[in-house]
Amino acid sequence: MDAGTTTSYNLIKGTGSINNYLQLNISNKSNGTNASSDIVATNDIGDENYGYIDMGINSSTYNNATYSIGGINDSYILCYGSATTGGNLDIGTGSSASIKFNTNGSLAANERMRIDATGNVGIGITNPAYLLDVAGNMNINTPSASSTMTIDAKNSTANPAKIIFKNSSGTGDFKIGADGGDIVWQGGGGRNLQMGSWHGIDLVGGRTVSSDLAFTTGPTRPITHEYSTPTTP
């Protein structure tokens, strides 16, 4: 259908009144390995390759390893700009509301992550108080390489980079901080700062090179204090 030049916002309009879901349904009845059901919006220079956004679902026997979304019954939203400039896919809300991500269902209990109206991201928590707020365990793992977490202080003594281990009851905390120069370990809350290891402790200082941390033995360490392993736990 070609509407030609029009001033109407509604090319297709459907209305109804039902105390249940009211839908526009597109269903491809083919169960072929390349079959899918799609809704596509194409821009003024778009074609089958670029300049469109596609929302769809694969067939029950879909099998095409060419695409990353190649599983049976997989659903997707894909944005293809031009061959040279691409095109961003913007997902957002127009008011002070959150973007929520669910898995394994659409109930409130199935929410896994949200981005709230202020930009805070919560994983496992529905009211994030920080730019990233995680309720649960985290793992950083780089296969076949070292894993690194970097906190950049921008060489600022006024705003040092910090890792804070906090007791939510307020009975103590532990801070590791750095300002691009000094490194500080600090215990707080009127509690002791303890350091120990069952297999001994090596304190190393006086490094003369700026290479990454490396462990060596014997006299190559400028300063070494080693405490022997206790005889009983």
The helix-strand sequence is: EEEEEEEEEEEE
Alpha-beta classification: mainly beta
Termini gap? 81 Å
Strand order of the largest sheet: 4-5-6-7
Q: Oligomer, anyone?
A: single chain
Per the principal axes of the C-alpha atoms, what is the gross shape? elongated
How confident overall, as mean pLDDT? Answer: 83
Q: Specify Rg, calculated over alpha carbons.
A: 28 Å
Which segments are poorly predicted (pLDDT under 50) over 5 or more consecutive residues?
A: 218-224
Counted by DSSP, the helix tally is 0
How many strand elements? Answer: 12
- Percent strand: 25-35%
Tell me about the largest β-sheet: 4 strands, mixed
Query: What portion of residues is helical?
Result: under 10%
Structural write-up:
The termini are far apart. Among the domains are: 1-90, no CATH class; 99-134, no CATH class. The radius of gyration is 28 Å and the shape is elongated. The chain has a 4-stranded mixed beta sheet with strand order 4-5-6-7, with no helix packed on it. The chain has a 3-stranded antiparallel beta sheet with strand order 1-2-3, with no helix packed on it. A 3-stranded antiparallel beta sheet has the order 8-9-10, with no helix packed on it. It has strands at 36-42, 52-58, 75-80, 99-102, 111-115, 121-123, 132-134, 161-166, 173-178, 183-188, 201-205, 223-227. 0% of the residues lie in helices and 27% in strands. It has no helices and 12 strands. The protein is mostly beta strands.
